From TrEMBL, chain B:
Protein name: Small ribosomal subunit protein mS23
A Pfam cross-reference name: MRP-S23
Chain ranges of the Small ribosomal subunit protein mS23 conserved domain: 6-139
Keyword tags: Mitochondrion, Ribonucleoprotein, Ribosomal protein
Native organism: Clavelina lepadiformis (Light-bulb sea squirt)
Alphabetized InterPro entries for the sequence: mS23_dom, mS23_dom_met, Ribosomal_mS23_met
Superkingdom field: Eukaryota
Family assignment from sequence similarity: Belongs to the mitochondrion-specific ribosomal protein mS23 family.
Amino acid sequence: MKRISTLCSCSAYASAFIQSTNSFSLRTLTSHQMFYFKSSMKPLFPSSKTQQSFLRTVQSEPKIQVATLQKNTERENPLLHSDFFGVKSLVTIEDLYKARVHFGHTKGCRNELMKPYLFGCRLGTDIFDLDVTLQHLHRALNFLAHMAFRKAIILFIMKSHQHGHAVEKLAQECGEFAHTRAWGHGTFTNNKINPRELKGGIKLPDLCVFLSLQDTVQDRHLAIDECAKVGIATIGICDSNVNPSIITYPVPANDDSLQSIELFCSLFKKAVLLGKEKRLEIENSSQSVKTADSTE
Amino acid sequence: MSTVGIRLHRSGSIYSRIRDLLKTDVIERDNRPLWYDVYEAFPPIREPVYVPDMKLDEFGLSIAKDDVRPILYEEDWVRATYSLHYSKVSHNNLKDVTSMFIDKKYPCVCSTLKFVEQYQEFKNKDSSKEEIFAKTLDYFGKIDLQK
């Protein structure tokens, strides 16, 4: 009871992390505030029913899977394959064009660091070079799929009244997390609010996907710097008026049109689900190998 | 992960910081972040090192040179002349960015569009652009373009 009360006192700062109803049933505490827990040893509220692996680092991977992966010489290391998840076939330049991904802001709003990604300026509106965008997008989707394969905690961030619901829905359909509300200052970095040293403290995401680098008030989203401080990898859709330098895998594209955000939501969802499917495949086949070994 | 030296988000990239911490054995190899292996296998096109925004001048304007190439087409001259002098539509918004996004399957509503398309059909190397313009104008004189 003591534990619960200390965590609930953080409610003023913790924001609503929406999550799929399929997995991790223990995490639905209250209607709007859901905390995500880290456990180096075991879950805070141990539940024998849910099959949760609080994977945070490489170390905590179950050894059985690793052994069977290494044993089976046919199974390749996904990192050695150039496109293990077939992410490059998900989108073409024509799809990007139809979704109006190439429209940037007006040239008065231009951030000089986005200049290398621009194809040109049509009557005052910056236009992205879709060849360059596609390259960046392929890398970002590939990274996303690999992280989903490794059971990363993925947080989709978008502070926009228009698109907030779409992003929450995306996270629900993927089985990952979303944050589309006001960002509490110090959500990742404040150690007083998020005690990490305690046993069973708060756990951070492994990857943050920004569908827009800006807050609604046209300021830079606070989470970008916090991710960089704490060492969380980021994927971000960078429009022509933002500073993309600190994003790990930037994707220079339009983040304001409904069609363009819908396209990116669907692409990210597909990439995450591809990663998770492959993981299930490998786990199931390794289990069957394991049972075959045990019967011998 | 609240080890020393990680929170300097403006010095190097997250990758370089963690790589160096691993090298000096501050973090154990087993405690490296989940994205580290994936980053090494598939690095981004540019390492995410912080670059500050350009400083503004005394009036709050950017001091950078505007050397992004303007996107102009040959038929822009046709568009401009036609829509200014002959089109019946008001010219409050001359910035026609929608010309970047024309889908042929939808029927043309804009008269400038029709005019330009017809101009393209008549275009050949012999006559000058004024002559072809006059020719298309004659062509459309018989048909009401606003339909």
